[in-house]
Amino acid sequence: MANPTTRTRTMNAAARAAAKRAKRVEYLKRPEPSAPDGWDDLPEPTPEPLEQDPASLAEPEGSAPPPRPGRRLLTAVLGVVLVAALVAAALLGWQYGQGRRAESARSEAVAAARKAAPVVLSYDYRHLDRDFARARTLLTGHFRDQYGKTTSTVVGPTAKKYHGVVKATVPAASVTSASPDKVTVLLFVNQVTQSTQVSGSRLDLNRVRMTMSRTSDGWKVSAVDAL
């Protein structure tokens, strides 16, 4: 038969366990506390922004990095230098071409002047019209018209009156200035003159500045000045 003391302890333990279960059921059946007035729709908490990793701010692979200010300035300076170099090269090329043309003009104009001077500065009273017409083919511009007026009003009548004959030669010539289309030539001219006013022949040593101009028909005399 069981000990009364043991039975009492067992009953007490069962009673305590039943009381705990009753309190637990009562607690679970209690209604949940409601939120205070105005708090029915509480906003959900906003998650704090995560601190970005500096590595995530790097440019994606394959994209070119943005140009730096110093690099942009260097590019602009190089562009200006390149343009200046191209302009300088074009200018030098043009100057070189002009120099070559001027050098070619010097030799051509001197040769033309040496041939033209004896024709322009010579005449014979026995065939003045032929001499003057031949000379006019070597002239150009305003000087051609001036030559025609001078020979018809002054030189021709004087040559006929005194039976004048003038023969010119050019022993030396040099260039004083030259451009591709105009050359100034200094000529040393010897003129032998015969007329009824001169006993025998007279030799005149003259210096003449002759301007030669390029035309579609070659180099022509555009001015003559006695020095």
TrEMBL record:
<keyword id="KW-1133">Transmembrane helix</keyword>
<feature type="transmembrane region" description="Helical">
    <location>
        <begin position="73"/>
        <end position="94"/>
    </location>
</feature>
<feature type="region of interest" description="Disordered">
    <location>
        <begin position="1"/>
        <end position="69"/>
    </location>
</feature>
<protein>
    <recommendedName>
        <fullName>Mce-associated membrane protein</fullName>
    </recommendedName>
</protein>
<feature type="compositionally biased region" description="Low complexity">
    <location>
        <begin position="1"/>
        <end position="17"/>
    </location>
</feature>
<keyword id="KW-0472">Membrane</keyword>
<keyword id="KW-0812">Transmembrane</keyword>
